[in-house]
Structure formats: structure tokens, C-alpha cells
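QUALITY CONTROL LOG
STEP: pairwise intake check
CHECKER ROLE: data steward
CRITERIA: each record must contain a sequence immediately followed by its C-alpha cells, with no blank fields

ENTRY 1 OF 2
RESULT FIELD BELOW
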Amino acid sequence: MKIMIASKLHLKSLLILSLLLLLASNTALAQTGWRLERLETSGGDLNAVYFDNSKRGWTAGDNGYLSHTEDGGRTWTRQVIPTDRAVNDIYFRNGDDGFILAGNLILATNNGGQNWREVTRFTPAQVGGASAELYSIRFSSKKRGWIVGSLSRRDIVVDSLLLSTDDGGVSWQRRRAPVRDELIHVDFVNDHRGWIVGAGGTILHTEDEGETWVEQRSGVRATLYHVDFSNSNHGWAVGERGTILRTLNGGDTWMTVAVQFRARLLSVQFANDHEGWAVGRGGLILHSTDGGETWVTQESATRENLYALFVEKKRSWAVGGDGVVLHYER
């Protein structure tokens, strides 16, 4: 009888231990859901990532580096583009027509990224003797697109740069912004409504397809590096010193989210109104499931800076220093 009771107790202990190990395993998987790989970039950083569907995407960065995948990031193929400047952004307005921003250059493709050509170069003579740096590009409609950046002299920013196109990116014209601060990222949710963020806590907003831009009060002076809206009301912006802002009314009011870290955040994107990610310096990845009201850190398995993020409903990618590429599947 004592042997039988002991056996039952031993079996019960084994079941409890197995359950605990299973729970620990699931917790570990949840914490390490980002799969890490490193592309050969000769030590250069990856600054941009874009997917036009769950399989086909691009990542780009320093020294004119560009790689392409057709299998969701399982394999990457290096592509040659006509520049050795650092790529700041890559964006496709449809399956064929895409754009790359590199320094003062705009590169374009009309065959789905098979070939890239230079379409526009902003020389100092065109912008008052200053040096142009183009950071972010988005299209609000089939023909109308926007680029933001800065103008500098001797590495000191002297003015903002706001460009628009009405012919699908064939030609670009400078538009006057209501601020002279460096403009870093632009996002549109439809043909009419868009936002721009930049240095000094700058947030600009348009409701008339970019005909006029007005300042919104961010409540901060920290540089904001990225803005993302899931619809006309719900938006988020991130920046220096762990700054996270959120709005529930299209930016009429922006709320500062209290967090326990001070690392610079460089990109934010939401899959829907509730679930989103932010990435930044030192391999930092943050995750929110309540619309950005609270954030928790996720294990990234890297200490490299993460510069860009691309989020879909079931997959996400983050890229950063020394060729780091992270892939997450839900």
C-alpha cells in the first residue's frame, strides 16, 4: 500500500513538473518570438524595410545596400542600385511603382523593384545652397505623394523640406511647411488626412490633401522620429528619451505615455487599433495590446539599434545595425 501511494505521488509530481515545464516553454516562446538573422552588409546598418505582401519585401541601408525577398524573408537577394548613399526609406505605392530615398536622391522602379533608376536629385542650387536630406515618403492617393526631410549647411539644419508630387512621382515640387524644424516621417490614412513629425516635438497635420499643414500641440520638445495612424482618430508617435505619444481624436490632443526607460525609439506601427510595436536603440522592442496605453518589452536577441519596423496582421519585421533582420509571426 505504501509503495502504491508513493508511486501515485511520484506520478502526480511528474505531471506537475511537466505542466510547469510546458508553461515555461510557452513563456519562453512568447518572449523570444522574434527570429534573428544577419545579412552581409559589410558592417553597414539597415535603415528601412518594406513588404508589399506577406512574401515580397525589401530592406535597405548604408552604402546603397538593397536586398529583396520573395519568400517572406527566408532568403534575401542583393540588388544593385545607382547610388552608394545611405538609404533612408523605401516605399511602394502599388505592386509595380516603388521609391527609394537616399541622401538627396529619389530612385524609382516601375517593374516591381527589378530595376531602379534615379529620377530626381536635389542639388544645393535648387534649395538655396543647402544640402538636402530626404527621410520619408508616402502616397496619399494614386498620383499624390509626399516626401519630408531637411536642409542643412555644415551639418546644421537650417530649414525643413516638404515635397509633393501630383503625377505619381514623375516630378516633385517643394512646398512650404509652417515650421523650419527637421521633418523626419510622414503618414497618411486616406486621401485627405495626414501627419508629419520631426525635431523639437513637431507634429503637423493636414485635412485637405496637403494643401495646408497646421501644427498640433505635442506637449514635448523631444525629437519625434516616427508616426503611425491606424485610422483617422487613433495615432502614435515615438522619439527621443523613450517618448511615446498617443491620440484618440486625430491629434487634437496628444497624451504622453509614461514608461520606465529612456532609450531612443525610432519606429512605431500598429496592426490594428489595439496591437502595436515600437523599436529603438539597443535592440529595444516594445509591444502593446491596449492601443498604446501600456507597453511591455520583448526579447530581441540583439543589442544592435533597430531603425525600422514593418507590421502586418500576422507578420512583423524589424531591421537595424550591422545587417540585423528580425521576423515575428503571430
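ENTRY 2 OF 2
RESULT FIELD BELOW
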Amino acid sequence: MTNVITYIGDTDMLSSLAEAERKAGAAILAVYGSSAVQVDRKADASPVTAADRIAHEILADHLARTSDFPVLSEEGRDIPYEERRHWETFWLLDPLDGTREFISRNGEFTVNVALIHRGQPVMGAIYAPVKNLLYTAIKGGGAYRTAQGAAVRLPVDQRKKGFLVVGSRSHASPAFEAYVLKLKARYDDLVLITAGSSLKFCLVAEGAADVYPRLGTTMEWDTAAGQLIVEEAGGRVTEAASGKPLRYNKADLRNHHFIVTGRGWYD
């Protein structure tokens, strides 16, 4: 088994992962640009397309060739907890995060991959194919945004007007609305913006938003890469009830409700 310590801080591995995400993104865009996208339904009634499956195959093949760690993917097989509970280190994939955004063709979907070690993300990459934006992080090594070949460390200086709260474009909830009302009582200049997929994490990490409350259902593959990117940019991703960081490889892969906060502001 490959020693995970060689992966934490392995920029070559992260670069290789980023290229695999770009390749998966190109395959997604090929489907995205077709005249019609067939939408199927999974057992939980959530949508899935050929783009989800193709991206999974590209990423899973790459990780099988370049590492010894097992893979848990939204589009992979259902792996019983009795099997994966013994995993100390594994890859966690969401090959196409924001399938609803993909179907609606608003461009706000991403490719998410994280390396999980002892319940926490230690390497992560998020790629937004339409925007050609790449966000990466390694535990202890900072978070970066790469656009047009130029990488900048996060967060970056932002000229925001007001206190910016980012919410889900497709998954609003009464609990979220109540939380925003509470914030409005504290911040007269509050501005609410919406975004799809893990881009909400990225907006907080880069400093374009102050807080992202997620008070609805998410899965572990939705959040792992984004959590590390936010944390390495100086922010926090914590459970709404306990204030503890999200944990991974639980028996139930659903996350508890959580709050994402940027550097310099904590709820």
C-alpha cells in the first residue's frame, strides 16, 4: 500500500489529478454540447446522465493506474460500510457535481475529487469545465485557483459590497431562509447570491462570499474537496449543530447540516 504521507504535499500527484479532472471535464462538455441529453433516474430519484458516467470512468481509471487507494464515487458501486470502514485512506469522487445545473445548462457544475485520510480530506481538486477554473488544495499547503494557466493563492482581495451569503441555486430550504433572516438582523448590508454545485465552497474560499449555510441534504462526495479548499484558504466548514468539522467515511454517507465561513468571519 502506498504511504499516504508521500501524497500529502505531493504536488506532482495533485497536478496529475488536475489533468484527469480536465480530461473528465472535456468529456462532460462533449455531452453538454450535444443537441439532447438523456436524463435517467437513480434509485433515490436524483438525475444522472451519460456525462456523469463517462466522467466517473475517466477518473476511476486514472486513480487505479496512479495510486493504490480504493475509490468511493457517487457513480460507482454501492460499497457496504463493513468493507469501507477498514479504509484508512481512499479517494472520494463526485464526477459531475451539479447534475441539475448541467441539465438546465447554466454552466454551474464541477468535477470534485478528494483524498481522504483518517476521516479528513488531505488533497482536493474542483474543476469547473464551462468556466475553465481549477481549485486545488493540499493539507498544510494552501489553496489555489488556476485560470488561464495562472495560479493564485486563496483567498484573493475582493471588492465586495456588503456581507455576502451564498446559497444553493437548486436546493433552497426553509431552514436556510430562517438562517438568512437571522443574519439580516446582524448585517444591514447583507446580499444573497446563489450558485450551483461545489462552486459555493469556491466562492467562500476565494473571498467572493462570506458564508455558505447548507441546511439541507448533501453527501460526502459533495463536500470533501470543497471543505479542504476552504480550510486551506483560512476558512471553516463545520456542522451547524456541533461546530465540529465534517467527517468522512461514515456509515451513513449523508452529511449533517453545515456552515461554511470565510477567513476572518466565524459564526
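INTAKE CHECK: passed for both entries
DESCRIPTIVE NOTE, ENTRY 2: The CA atoms of residues 81 and 251 lie 6 Å apart.
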